[in-house]
Write a structure and sequence with these properties.
By secondary structure, this protein is of the alpha/beta class. The chain has three domains: 140 residues, Rossmann fold (3-Layer(aba) Sandwich), CATH 3.40.50.720; 164 residues, no CATH class; 66 residues, RNA polymerase sigma factor, region 2, helix turn helix motif (Rna Polymerase Sigma Factor, Chain: A, Orthogonal Bundle), CATH 1.10.1740. 47% of the residues lie in helices and 15% in strands. It is built from 16 helices and twelve strands. The strands form two sheets. It has a seven-stranded parallel beta sheet, with helices on both faces. The structure holds NADPH dihydro-nicotinamide-adenine-dinucleotide phosphate (NDP), 1-deoxy-D-xylulose-5-phosphate and manganese (II) ion.
């Protein structure tokens, strides 16, 4: 039986992870979990899975949970709580499913304590990929990708030689506004942006898919996870989200991973690797029912956020930290109705242009820059 610490249990990935763990309760137990504000969902999960420890965001949530909890659970709160459960000696697997760079220290802690890491929290790799991968390589701790494209690439690289990779091909659905022109984006609403054509996800990543920043973050994530130069990471539009990504080798063979859009599969694979388990209610892909698959060149004029991400990744240093912090702040403002959809890219570009890049920033510098960028943006709009 493997004990799991699930960071971000009440979110989209978190809840699907609970489903996977519950279906294999002979193999996994939810030993510890964390959440942010959603006390109602947290109580449902606590009742269902009976974790021993629950890490909450702050003392206010701590009080709210304590008042309603009738299970014998240890509750811890505050900044270090995520790291505390990631380091717990009983924990075998850490599933990092929090949204945002708030997951950074917990990732470093899970590496330090040599846990098996099922890694969804892409913002962590964007903001501090050089630190995270240096620590992971030194500790000999692999980050098992949960992100569907990176799970596909991980599978397509399996058993192959890295130096024989020609390029990585990341697929993008195009997001909620893929059939809208730049002009038509002027008046779109939050509700429009949250209407992803293929996936049901958390709000922030769904907006990121619409701006194409999600794919930009995934380019940086792939660079760090697999050590592939940015010049060898290509993004193509693939409306069906059936091919989750591909690897082309020097002989121009392309190895791809396909499946129905169901995040429980990459989640489960990161938990069970190198084995594969079956899963109830997971739909088999019927290619003859799909008929055709479509591929188009990515238009970076239409999606400037993808260009910003490549620029930040290639320039490196503290620029990816600025890109990620500005994006998190801008999307939060958009979701609150404070800025328009097209303002998101403007906020990011301005933050990047105003920044004086720091080379090879350490953890403290990354956290300082992250908070400074957010403060400056929120001052302008709140
Ligand atoms: N959803 C998906 O299908 C995919 C997601 N990912 C990545 O996985 C990660 C999670 O995404 P997703 O599940 O969609 O996100 P959600 O917003 O649905 O969930 C995020 C989780 O993190 C918690 N959380 C948010 N902010 C804080 C904070 N400051 N402190 C503590 N906990 C916090 C939330 O708590 P609460 O809700 O209780 O406030 C929630 O449990 C992201 O990095 C995303 O990019 C990658 C591929 C696919
Ligand atoms: C399910 C998942 O991994 C998301 O990152 C998804 O890929 C978003 O899709 P697009 O960014 O391709 O619209
Ligand atoms: Mn993805």
């Amino acid at each position: 039986m493997k004990s799991v610490a699930l960071l971000g249990a009440t979110g989209s990935i978190g809840k699907q992870t609970v489903d996977v763990i519950s279906q294999h309760s002979d193999k996994f137990e939810l030993y510890a979990m964390s959440f942010g504000e959603n006390v109602e969902e947290a109580l449902r999960i606590i009742k269902q899975c009976k974790p021993k420890i629950v890490a909450v965001k702050n003392d206010r949530v701590y009080q709210l949970l304590k008042e309603q909890l009738d299970e014998p659970v240890k509750i811890i709160s505050g900044k270090e709580a995520l790291s505390e459960i990631s380091a717990d000696p009983t924990v075998d697997i850490v599933v990092n499913a929090v949204m945002g760079s708030v997951g950074l220290r917990a990732t470093l802690t899970a590496i330090e304590y040599k846990k098996q890491i099922a890694f969804a929290n892409k913002e962590t790799l964007v903001t501090a990929g050089h630190l995270v991968m240096e620590a992971a390589n030194q500790a000999g701790v692999p980050l098992l990708p949960v992100d569907s494209e990176h799970s596909a690439i991980y599978q397509a690289l399996n058993g192959e030689k890295k130096n024989q990779v020609q390029k990585i091909i990341l697929t993008a659905s195009g997001g909620s506004f893929r059939d809208k022109s730049r002009e038509e984006l002027e008046g779109v609403t939050v509700e429009d942006a949250l209407n992803h054509p293929n996936w049901s996800m958390g709000a922030k990543i769904t907006v990121d898919s619409a701006t194409m920043m999600n794919k930009g973050l995934e380019v940086i994530e792939a660079h760090w996870l697999f050590g592939i130069p940015y010049e060898n990471i290509e993004v193509i539009l693939h409306r069906e989200s059936i091919i989750h990504s591909m690897v082309e080798y020097v002989d121009h063979s392309i190895i791809a991973q396909l499946g129905t859009p169901d995040m429980r599969i990459p989640i489960q694979y990161a938990l069970t690797y190198p084995d594969r388990y079956s899963l109830n209610r997971s739909k088999a892909l019927q290619l003859t029912e799909i008929g055709k698959l479509h591929f188009e060149k990515m238009d970076e004029q239409r999606f400037p956020c993808l260009t910003y991400a490549y620029r930040a990744g290639k320039e490196g240093g503290s620029l990816p930290t600025v890109l990620n912090a500005a994006n998190e702040a801008a999307v939060a403002l958009f979701l609150k109705g404070k800025i328009s959809f097209l303002d998101i890219e403007k906020v990011i570009e301005r933050a990047m242009n105003l920044h004086h890049k720091v080379d090879n920033p350490n953890l403290e510098m990354i956290e300082l820059i992250d908070s400074e960028v957010r403060k400056e943006i929120f001052q302008d709009y709140l």
